[in-house]
Amino acid sequence: MNRKNFSVLTHAAALGLAYLFSITPRLIGRAKRMPGLYFAHRGLHNIENGIPENTLAAFQAAADHGYGIEMDVQLTKDGQVVVAHDFDLKRICGIEKDVDECTYEELCRFPVLGTDQRIPLLKDVLKIVDGKVPLIVEIKYKKIGSAVCRKTAQILDTYPGTYCIESFHPLALLWYRKFRPDICRGQLAMNFHRDDGKFHPVYYFPRHLLLNFLTKPDFIAYDYHAKAAISLTLCRVLFGIPCFAWTVKSVRELYACERTFDYFIFEGFLPERDK
User: Fold this and answer.
1) Are residues 72 and 54 in contact, defined by beta-carbon separation less than 8 angstroms?
2) C-alpha radius of gyration, the chain, whole number
């Protein structure tokens, strides 16, 4: 082997090792795996029956059916932790404001998707669920230095039920790694360019799980359409990390990804819980 070929192989090996290092999740002291198999996406919602997403009615329905629950939390203007997915209110309430531009009292005036439901407080959701089913709490991290992690953690600290947290934003996971290391944490990821039309170098890193070496997640939650993603596959096969599929919307989609993932976040149908 000549010097040039040796140099190429050396650089390739170094890059390969750097890549594996960057996607390495938590290996030592990994949090206990979540119980359950199926998690209702934003609760067991059905707008035709007057049950919109991320509302007390949707969470009550999921608990009654014995499904785990996935929900989203963020802060209001007055620092309350509420359960809502979108940062703005246009889609769910028809209001041209962001959630954090309104106090909780103001949010209570706005019906969710034309029903009698309102955007709930996290603490009220926890009272409804009361440990009956496991929870996935997605941290919607909007601003650098946001207090959403601290305030969410303070509420969950006294909750007796089983839960984990997840987020797209690495700063949310870094906060939990530092201040709540024993809490199970997960990295959300997707193909941002294909699914959201977002093309920017910053999205390359979470898409390929390249910040795992910093955030050290206990699980990966990935868009099930991208089940063949290399980083996802390596994390599961090489490092043995549990993987959640989102969002599965039919039995057919469930069958298509059930061999790749360990847990399933679903909506629009009822999976067989004893499967």
Assistant:
1) yes
2) 20
Tens-digit pLDDT profile for residues 238-264: 999 999 999 999 999 999 999 999 999
The angle at the Cα of 57, spanning 41 to 147, to the nearest 5 degrees, equals: 65
Going by DSSP bridges, is the β-strand pair 38-41/81-83 parallel, antiparallel, or unpaired? unpaired
Output the pTM of the full model: 0.93
How far, in Å, CA of 43 to CA of 71, rounded? 7
Write the DSSP assignment of 234-260 as a string of letters: HHHHTT---EEEEEE-SHHHHHHHTTT
Evaluate the omega torsion of the peptide bond into residue 247 and state whether it is cis, within 30 degrees of 0.
yes
Q: Is the pLDDT of residue 41 over 90?
A: yes
Q: Are 62 and 40 in contact (CB under 8 A)?
A: yes
Paired tokens of 196: 């959201």
Report residue 191's pLDDT band, with 50, 70 and 90 as the boundaries: confident
Spatial separation of the C-alpha atoms in residues 158 and 162, rounded to whole Å: 11
Q: Tell me the residue ranges of DSSP E strands in the chain.
A: 38-41, 68-75, 81-83, 135-139, 163-167, 185-189, 219-223, 243-248, 263-266
Q: What is the mean pLDDT of residues 93-107?
A: 97
Q: Match 């809490």 to its residue by tokens.
A: 183
CA 136 to chain CA centroid, Å, is 7
Q: What is the pLDDT of residue 10?
A: 74
Contact, 186 vs 262, CB < 8 A? no
